[in-house]
Design a protein that fits this description.
Elements (H helix, E strand, L loop, with lengths): L2 E4 H13 L4 E5 L7 H12 L3 E6 L7 H7 L4 E4 L7 E4 L2 E5 L13 E6 L6 H17 L1 E3 L29
Parallel strand pairs: 2-3, 3-4
Antiparallel strand pairs: 1-7, 2-5, 4-8, 5-6, 6-7
Length: 171
Amino acid sequence: MAEFLTTKGVISAIDDIIKYAKKEVFIISPFLKISKMYRERLKAAVQRGVEVSILFGKSKNLDAETIHDLKDCASFYYYEDLHGKCYYNEEEMVVTSMNMYEASEKNREFGIRLTKSDTKDNKIYEKCEMECSEIFSLSDPIKHFDQLQVSFSVNTSEKKEIHNKPHNSGY
């Protein structure tokens, strides 16, 4: 049955979604900034044979650490008008206000956890999964981050601007 989650519950549910995925994990969040804990979980999932797909919608201030850690093990997609946040695997889903970066873990966040095998959650899970699939199908796959005009924030003491050619769909 659907479960209402507060901040700690959302953190734990996202962690479980990644940790217990058997086939695939989908990360949908406007910001491409993922905390170290989640990046490590995602890399461990890939080592178990799980496919990781990350959809983001804001191309400014992309997190260099996230890109560095996950560029070789996850598939990235960009959809400019994305604002929703949803994290799911083949069995569980969390629709939430929370982003996956550490600062969000200190905010007052909330969300709903759905379980696909629960007959009461199944229709809602499938509707949400359909919407997410549609957004993925409309998004641009990112093979190289130089496809976007990127401003990397390397760390808090040093900022480095990198301006590349805008995305060209003929890749």
